[in-house]
Specification:
Number of helices: 22
InterPro entries: Amidase_dom (IPR023631), AS_sf (IPR036928)
Keywords: Signal
Bound molecules: 2-acetamido-2-deoxy-beta-D-glucopyranose
Pfam family, one: Amidase
Protein name: WGS project CABT00000000 data, contig 2.1
Largest sheet: 11 strands, mixed
Length: 580
């Protein structure tokens, strides 16, 4: 009943707008698993892949138990946080099949029988929809699984459900909040009441932060894996564009879109990345992958405690200095991180200046805006053309806009569609030659001598680091990778800051943030090693705890089997009331 109390107090606490309740509940300690009848079960809040795989191997619990436990956890917090929008109605059946396969010795690999959530813009050819958060796509069907979903299934993963997102991956307008979609409502972060969950992979961030599945796939065009990983105490890998296929993923820009893992540990993210990389004839950007199809890098073995030894790491301070200083409370933790990197054997090359970034900023990032806006209507239409069932006959961005203006559930005009109007304007007035001119200018400033790649090479760097918040722009436009890992949380005396709509907290005591490692295209393996070595020395995730934690553990499910224990929901607004 503790969770019930916390949830019921939440509106009161918020009304006072203070942070007292952060310390007021001493029972909100890290949960470290449960011991039932002398048997120890891992805590789902923190369990990693190896914990779950070991439990499955030893027969401590089954994949059916895991699906049951995660589903209960999802329902416990969903009406407050709205992180998960759909549950896979076949998940239990799939789990039972994978349990049977395991019993007969047919284990597909480390992900066998492990529940994973997908952002609701990554399509699956099953009973679930792929909506991008819009009613325009409810009921629409794809001809087959997206390549990344197919690869996860082949690796034995159970696709447990879909996660909420900023509608259309945040491409609709500037006036809706991170984590809001028409179909999913408003996602909230779990580290402070009414925490802005960041976006656009908001539901993935919140769900994995709370252990509602082992891990999730998110998508990124500009910051959409990194920012919610940052704000939700997660490891996020934004892969090089082309490393993972975008086939049957709702697009924004072929030049910038990428699909990557969001997980609680670097190694879990590495396991997931290993499962989803590779060339795909349905996404020709994957032909840029520089390694043979049958010899992908071993991202898991890259997880080496000593990877920082001898590494050369740059710090492009001007990217921080050019920003407003509302997020400055991050900086002491960043300085501490730099000394951790040094003491682990890295050489820090500090005070680098990427003046190309300053130029892009002076141009109001218009080159990127023109590249994205010329890609968007074309790439989106190409996604729609592949649908096999399309209930509203949505074939273009214009159709999406018409639908959005006519269906009141889309909350237009309160949430406008001006970004689409801009895309129409730009794409109809920009020639291919001009779009190419903007693309090459963007690459030159972002990646040339005064940009990321030029500076990495000039100083023979393995990587550059920044607080994740400031890391997203150059890798977004360059299609280069970033690994973000938890670095700290805002201190008790941090000056609280609301988002632009005044309804959610961006900065508040206890809200997490991360450290980003940026590198050359296809340097994921090296970045994962560096991030792992940092993570193992700091283990920040375990020191940053959510204010709200679902209570069901896999041990409860195992022990409660056949006894009809009703632990589905403890949420004030949910089923709990009906159950009494
Ligand atoms: C989660 O909550 C939202 C909003 O209340 C609801 O629409 C959705 O169906 C819920 N998802 C699940 C999986 O229960
Ligand atoms: C992929 O194909 C499209 C259209 O066929 C083409 O415009 C684009 O340049 C190709 N991209 C790569 C990376 O090969
Ligand atoms: C960038 O935006 C500012 C403020 O809106 C404007 O004054 C300036 O002229 C813009 N710069 C360019 C190069 O468009
Ligand atoms: C969004 O912008 C429209 C005008 O473009 C305005 O009418 C509406 O109130 C704004 N909504 C919010 C939530 O700011
Ligand atoms: C699009 O172009 C029209 C006509 O030039 C203009 O009135 C409108 O403000 C533009 N909209 C946006 C969002 O740029
Ligand atoms: C970028 O595109 C615009 C048209 O939208 C064009 O006027 C401009 O010249 C292009 N810039 C470059 C550097 O090619
Ligand atoms: C697809 C789906 O589950 N949609 C539901 C999500 O949430 C809204 C409310 O926030 C419901 O009305 C939808 O039915």
């Amino acid at each position: 009943m503790r969770l019930l109390q916390v949830l019921c107090l939440l509106p009161l606490a918020t009304a006072f707008g203070s942070s007292w309740y952060h310390n007021a509940f001493p029972w909100q300690k890290p949960l470290s698993g449960s011991t039932v009848n002398g048997v120890h079960f891992p805590s789902l809040l923190d369990a990693d892949l190896e914990d779950l795989a070991a439990g499955l191997e030893k027969g401590l619990f089954t994949s059916v138990d895991l699906v049951t436990a995660y589903t209960r956890r999802i329902l416990e917090v969903n009406s407050t946080l709205k992180a998960v929008t759909q549950l896979n109605p076949d998940a239990l059946t799939i789990a039972a099949e994978l349990d049977a396969a395991r019993s007969s010795g047919a284990v597909k690999g480390p992900l066998h029988g492990i529940p994973i959530l997908l952002k609701d813009n990554i399509a699956t050819a099953d009973k679930m929809d792929n909506t991008a958060g819009s009613y325009a796509l409810v009921g629409a069907k794809v001809p087959e699984d997206s390549t990344v979903a197919a690869k996860l299934r082949k690796a034995g993963a159970i696709i447990l459900g879909k996660t909420n997102l900023s509608e259309w991956a945040n491409s609709r307008s500037k006036n809706y909040t991170s984590g809001w979609s028409a179909t999913g409502g408003q996602t909230e972060g779990a580290y402070y009441p009414q925490q802005d969950p960041s976006g656009s992979s908001s539901g993935s961030g919140v769900a994995i932060a709370l252990g509602l599945a082992l891990a999730s796939l998110g998508t990124e065009t500009h910051g959409s894996i990194l920012a919610p990983s940052d704000a939700n105490n997660l490891v996020g890998i934004k892969p090089s564009v082309g490393l993972t296929s975008r086939y049957l993923v709702v697009p924004i820009s072929e030049h910038q879109d990428t699909v990557g893992p969001m997980a609680r540990t670097v190694k879990d993210a590495a396991y997931l990345l290993s499962a989803i990389v590779g060339r795909d004839p349905n996404d020709n950007y994957t032909s840029a992958i520089p390694f043979p199809t049958d010899q992908p890098p071993n991202y898991v073995s890259a997880c080496d405690y000593f990877a920082l030894g001898g590494a050369r790491i740059g710090v492009p301070r001007n990217l921080i200095e050019l920003d407003d200083q509302s997020f400055a409370p991050i900086l002491p933790a960043f300085e501490k991180a730099l000394s951790t990197l040094r003491s682990a054997g890295a050489t820090i090359i500090d005070d680098l200046v990427l003046s190309g970034y300053e130029t892009l900023k002076k141009e109001n990032f218009s080159f990127e805006s023109i590249v994205m806006n010329t890609d968007f209507p074309r790439n989106l239409a190409s996604y729609f053309s592949q649908l096999t069932i399309n209930p509203h006959n949505i074939l273009s961005l214009k159709d999406v806009e018409r639908f959005t203006h006519s269906d009141p559930r889309e909350e237009w005009p309160l949430k406008d569609t001006l970004a689409w109007d801009r895309a129409f304007n730009v794409s109809s007035t920009t020639s291919d030659a001009e779009a190419w001119g903007n693309y090459t200018a963007l690459q030159r400033y972002a990646g040339g001598a005064e940009g990321l790649f030029g500076t990495l090479r000039r100083h023979s760097l393995d990587a550059m680091v920044l607080p994740t918040l400031w890391s997203t722009t150059l890798p977004a436009v360059l299609g280069s990778p970033v690994v973000s890992v938890p670095m700290g949380k805002y201190p008790e005396d941090a000056r609280k800051l609301k988002n632009g709509y005044g309804n959610q907290w961006l900065v508040a005591p206890g809200v997490p943030f991360g450290l980003a490692f940026m590198g050359e295209r296809f340097s994921e393996k090296r970045l994962i090693g560096l991030a792992y070595a940092y993570e193992q020395r700091t283990k920040v995730r375990g020191q940053v705890r959510p204010y709200l934690v679902p209570r069901t553990e896999v041990g409860d499910v195992v022990v409660g089997k056949g006894k009809g224990r009703g632990t589905e929901a403890k949420d004030c607004t949910g089923i709990a009331e009906r159950k009494g």
